Amino acid sequence: MRWRDGLGLCGSALSSQPMRSLLTLLGVAIGIAAVALLTAMGEGLRERVLDSFAQFGTRVVTVRPGTLPTGGIGGILASARPLTIADADALGRLAHAEAVVPIIQGNGDIQAGGRQRRVDILGSGSQLAAAWRVHMAQGQFLPPSRDGRTPPYVVLGSKLGVELFGSANPVGQRVRVGGMSFRVIGVMASKGNLLGFDLDDIAYIPVDWAENLFNREGLVKIHVLFDDSVPAEAFAATVRRLLVERHGREDFRMTSQGDLLGSLNRILAAITLGIAALGGISLLVGAVGILTIMTTTVGERTAEIGLLRAVGAAPRQVLALFLAEATLLSLLGGVLGLVMVGILLGALHWLVPGLPLRLSPPLVLLALLLSVLVGIAAGLAPARRAAKLHPVDALRL
After folding, report:
1. Structure confidence by residue, pLDDT tens digits, 265-304
2. Is 218 helix (H, G, I), strand (E, B) or coil?
3. CA angle, 80 as apex, 78 and 84 as ends, to 5°?
4. Which positions ≥6 away from 336 have C-beta within 8 Å?
5. Please, which residues have CB within 8 angstroms of residue 49's CB and are 6 or more apart in sequence?
6. Which of 89, 85, 81, 88 lies closest to 249 in space, CA to CA?
């Protein structure tokens, strides 16, 4: 049997029962569409979260104050020495350190021009702009400290600047932050959200002023950015040695941004796989539909199978014929499913522009391959049954 004749027989078999074939196609199409759409959502979410973290760089070591267990039954928690601005300055003098960002976080009232609201307040240093890749819409970022003190300047997030001053230029204006008077030195360009934390709705003040404002004795954390000429493990070891020398013990905790991104990527990838597995349930329903229709087809076309065997068709040719029929059915269902996904993605982009969706070309090819495998798996048993029929017995039925 020539392959053209085989394809013709497959096409005529599918077209002879158009409604049944269409319903089976829809079963596979819905399964493929569910897998592709849910995977696109998972991938989009994963990239959105990873991009939010990666915008602050991946070669970052973060140091936080901690506590040490001491002797005694069950252990006694000893207070750790706080991280200080002097610690941050010392870390900034390390070889390969590109920027150091001391952080103190809190919230308070901000007043300007008769307007008042409560906002998040971030105390930091002059290198935050370079470390976090911040661009200024107006003015400049916080200046470096002089002789350990920084002028009382404040930088407003883009949204906060608009809410306090409207269309007017806020640079040079006086505002009160937590009851203290500051002069606006700049307004940041829009930076967006980081896991629900709106970076555009924050007042940025010098870290030494934040210590006084929040009555703190130390920093919440220190970000240390380093260049790519040194391995992350070696630089982290250098940071640890310096702080142990300054504190006399390891009373702090260190994390690497690269390690966090790797762990986060693995977690989100597992979530994406789980979401795709849920969509696979729909695909399983489509496979059952193909199995059902092919089993029914073998029973209905027993005489045709006997005639094919009588005119010389080998069992493997009959097997290939029915497998090709099931594969063609599922492949057409896969193509229809991808068309449905394209329509759904376009509608979602239009209705919900901020929804993270990413349908990559490898995912499209994987969906088509999956539909083919579903057809082969579902059609194998009926095809083997057809190939084993004896021509004489088949013609009698």
Report:
1. 777 777 767 766 776 676 677 677 767 766 666 666 666 6
2. coil
3. 165
4. 25, 26, 28, 29, 32
5. 195, 264, 268
6. 81
